[in-house]
Design a protein that fits this description.
Layout lengths: L1 H6 L10 H10 L12 H8 L6 H16 L7 H9 L20 E4 L2 E3 L2 H10 L7 E5 L5 H7 L4 E6 L2 H13 L5 E5 L12 E6 L8 H4 L2 E12 L3 E9 L2 E10 L14
Parallel strand pairs: 3-4, 3-6, 4-5, 6-7
Antiparallel strand pairs: 1-2, 7-8, 8-9
The structure holds S-adenosyl-L-homocysteine.
């Protein structure tokens, strides 16, 4: 089920069985404990001019969580809570907003994409985050994954190589109240050594192999989730244990390639 869903990261899937979904809705606890940050979405919801549409998007998020995420086996309450809360439609260009809660990756401009909600949830769960953690994300895009992380950990450091996307993400995250996210424009292959070591690292573009600089930047007992490969990509998790680095293969995926600074065509 996981593999099938992830391989469809760039396409739409048919909806899941509704009866089952409603049963899960009844069973599932609605609360989530948040880390000690302000409540960005609540502030945002009060201040947005589009507040008239709020109940609709909240229902769309609830459906997204039940049908695409819970139904495929994601159970971590904090992760599900964050996915319910973050207004995904605010992290895509206006023309794409009607599709924001669909079961697929979507274009965000400049040849880049926002990941499929299920893949965001899967990777977030795989990071095993704790409220006091500091996390590095490589591949900010327009900032959706960073916003999800922001609700779950103390600090998020996010790197983006395409300046226009990174700046837009930074402005949007700030405006929406995600105050514990820092964005840096730069080459994620180098990581963010001044802020290392991190408790967890998430890479949302695909390098051919795990970047060594990133491996050096997560602490003992830390976790790193990174897709590797070219056409065939595999999501892997590295874990630093007392016995050394453990490597697990989690899921076939399809992300945009991670490009080194030297190969980037300026746009
Ligand atoms: N995390 C995003 C999705 C990002 S798509 C979200 O939640 O929506 C992958 C992003 O990685 C793209 O924006 C791309 O420009 C960026 N990227 C590619 N190579 C990179 C590199 N070497 N360093 C940093 N970012 C990179």
């Amino acid at each position: 089920m996981h593999a099938e869903a992830a391989m469809n990261a760039c396409r739409s899937n048919p909806p899941q069985s509704l009866g089952w979904v409603f049963m899960m809705f009844l069973l599932f606890p609605q609360t989530v404990s948040s880390p000690p940050v302000s409540n960005p979405e609540a502030e945002d919801e009060r201040s947005r001019a589009d507040s008239a549409k709020l109940p609709e998007t909240r229902a769309a998020r609830e459906r997204m969580v039940q049908e695409q995420i819970f139904a495929r086996g994601i159970r971590a309450p904090r992760v599900l809570g964050a996915l319910r809360k973050v207004r995904r439609h605010r992290f895509v260009p206006p023309g794409v907003q009607p599709s924001a809660y669909e079961d697929s990756a979507l274009p965000i401009g400049l040849g880049q994409t926002i990941s499929q909600p299920y893949v965001v949830a899967f990777m977030t769960e795989a990071l095993e985050l704790k409220p006091q953690d500091r996390v590095l994300e490589v591949g900010t895009g327009l900032g959706y994954q960073a916003a999800v992380l922001s609700l779950l950990v103390r600090e998020v450091y996010s790197m983006e190589i395409v300046e226009r996307l990174g700046r837009e993400a930074e402005a949007r995250l700030k405006q929406m109240g995600y105050a514990n996210v820092r964005v840096r424009i730069g080459d994620g292959y180098r990581g963010w050594p001044e802020a290392a070591p991190f408790d967890a690292i998430i890479v949302t573009a695909t390098p051919p192999d795990v970047p060594p600089a990133l491996v050096a930047q997560f602490r003992p007992r830390g976790r790193m989730v990174v897709p590797v490969g070219r056409y065939e990509q595999d999501l892997i998790r590295l874990r630093r244990t007392p016995k050394g680095l453990e490597r697990e293969s989690l899921l076939p995926v399809r992300f945009v390639p991670m490009v080194p600074e030297s190969e980037r065509v300026p746009k």
